[in-house]
Amino acid sequence: MNALPATPALLRVARRVAWYCEPHSALADPIRFLAQVMTLGTPEDLRALRGVAGIEEFRAVLERAPPGIFDPRSWAYWHVICNREPGPLPERWLPPG
CB 64: neighbour CB atoms within 10 A? Predict the structure, then answer.
């Protein structure tokens, strides 16, 4: 998935859901950014994504979701929206020792 365009609307969303980094950096990592919008986003945030990201992109996020972003409720909700059977939430993996 390519970086998302730095439109004024998406930059506003990025400032809100990815407060820990620069908005342009957030848009450069679309899987992480969309996962954050899918978990923390408001209806207005989702409207800002119209024409930029849709159901196929949301499905791609669910397939490659970074661990630690989705909560159980958002994970279940987006699986219903994307007509998918929910699996376990992504987990962080640490090597032993």
Answer: 12
Q: Which of 73, 46, 45, 76 is nearest to 62 (CA)?
A: 76
pLDDT averaged per 10 residues, the chain (length 97): 92 96 96 97 95 95 96 97 94 83
CB-based contacts of 35, cutoff 8 Å, min separation 6: 61, 65, 66, 69, 70
Q: Where are the domains of the chain?
A: 8-81
pLDDT at 97: 76
DSSP 90: P
Q: What is the dihedral of CA 29, 91, 15, 38, to 10 degrees?
A: 90
Report the predicted TM-score, pTM, of the whole model to 2 decimal places: 0.92
User: What region, left, alpha or beta, does residue 3 occupy, with left being phi > 0 and alpha being psi -120 to 50 degrees?
Assistant: beta
